[in-house]
What we know:
Elements: H1 25-39, H2 46-56, H3 62-77, H4 80-92, H5 102-106, H6 111-125, H7 139-148, H8 152-160, H9 162-174, H10 179-188, H11 195-207
Helix pairs in contact: 1-2, 1-7, 1-10, 2-3, 3-10, 7-8, 9-10, 9-11
Amino acid sequence: MALRPPPHIKLSVMPEPTPAIAMTRDQRALTHMATSLLLDYPDGSFHTRTQQVAAAITTLPDAVRRVLETFLATAMAADAQDFEKAYVGTFDLKRKCCLYLSYYAAGDTRRRGQALVTFMEAYRAAGWEFDAEELPDYLPAVLEFSAVSESPIAEQLLAAHREGIEVLRAALLAVSSPYAGVIEAVCMSLPEIDDATRDRYLALVNEGPPTETVGLTFLGDLQPFSAGGAAPEEARR
């Protein structure tokens, strides 16, 4: 099954932001954990993760459950190597399909370093330590943080980057990626989008993330969290 998207993203139709779906706190946490597992790299454990998600999402609202079940059916039927290649070709090689949330607002500019520090401070403020190889704005990590944390900070962190998440969904729709449904489920779980956020979303879809020729040095010596901070738990394992 050919899942590799075309090399260039062209948005012929501008999708409207996703309407919010009423959820209980437990349903929102389950949605965020399920989408975190599905958006992470499809390594050797991916098939097991899809089976676990399929068994767990039966209690979600119908609209959310349906889009996740559609993705799961596609993922389970696909050749594992093809699906892995499609993941890399989608999320690693396209600016508008980035899984790092601060990239949409800060792009490749000096501002992104401070944005990443803000993410790490948010984990700590909620009593968690970030300890992973990924950067702290990695969407699957932030979704897991929201799923396991009782602090409202996690949901606020996602809501603050809603326009970037909507841009990601629009870009995935443009290349007919099955992952668009997973991002749609995330968007359904977030608060209703306001006019200001909608305007930023439309601008980002048209213009893309900011760019600046600074190499990679704007990250300085920034590393993911290690143990020894406010709490022994890890927001990312």
